[in-house]
Amino acid sequence: QQQVRQSPQSLTVWEGETAILNCSYENSAFDYFPWYQQFPGEGPALLIAIRSVSDKKEDGGFTIFFNKREKNLSLHIKDSQPGDSATYFCAASVTGFASALTFGSGTKVIVLP
Amino acid sequence: EAAVTQSPRNKVAVTGGKVTLSCNQTNNHNNMYWYRQDTGHGLRLIHYSYGAGSTEKGDIPDGYKASRPSQENFSLILELATPSQTSVYFCASGELGGQDTQYFGPGTRLLVL
Question: In 3-state terms, what secondary structure has residue B4?
Fold first, then answer.
């Protein structure tokens, strides 16, 4: 059973457009949701994260919108640039020393110039 | 900046052979993780560790062992490699369970023939 689901699997946008990536989860106990960005041939790197006490988090051109009741969240990439072309992973965890991240399957974003 | 290195970067193994993947971190983080990445599955947690001498099973531990001989080093061992273990393996380190940034290595591409 996949606890964290992402859609779409891939997304192509033009430079300057807003890319919207979706994520939903099963476990109501999840309270921390980071998004990781991965370029080809590299390991993932933390992009932005939100805790369940918040409904929005912004960092530069990246914004997370979080809906606790619906158990979903989205990542908006505003004014997309070709350099934003990468695979984005939504992840989730439960507060506690023993917790580890559960990752979604990723969304591949291509930004065309 | 956080530094996680992995060796080898590429490995070809034969079915039934023993494979050891190594990871080193210079961040002095307590927690270390091993993931595998396959198309359509994102990153799946194999084993993790809270510190030297400890190893814990993740979501998909079958067919894998782990060893944490020191704070800096964390190894993943495939005693009897199978073609289904062909994948890209990532090591990561982090400070506070799933609630803090995980720093990933560059990955090891393993092909089991």
Answer: strand
Angle (nearest 5°) at CA B54 between B48 and B56: 40
- Residue B43 has its nearest CB partner, among A42, A95, A103, at A103
Report how far Cα A18 is from the mean position of its chain's Cα atoms. Answer: 14
Instruction: Using an 8 Å CB-CB cutoff, list residues of chain B that contact chain A.
Output: 4, 33, 35, 40-45, 48, 50, 56, 58-59, 90, 92, 96-99, 101-107
* Residues B20-37 pLDDT 10s: 999 999 999 999 999 999
* Strand pairing report for B19-25 and B10-13: unpaired
Q: What's the rounded Cα separation, in Å, for the pair A82 and A104?
A: 23
Residues of A in contact with B33 (CB under 8 A): 100
Q: Report the residue from A4, A93, A103 with minimal CB separation from B99.
A: A93
Across the interface, whether the CB atoms of A94 and B98 are under 8 A apart is answered yes
Res. A107: pLDDT tops 70: yes
Mean pLDDT is lowest, of A22-26, A34-38, A96-100, B45-49, for: A96-100
CA angle A64, B91, B38 (to 5 degrees): 70
CA nearest to B41 within chain A:
A105
Going by their DSSP bridges, the two strands B108-112 and B10-13 should be labelled as: parallel
- What distance in Å separates the CA atoms of residue B113 and residue B111, rounded to the nearest whole number? 6
Out of A45, A93, A104, name the one closest to residue B104 (CB). A45
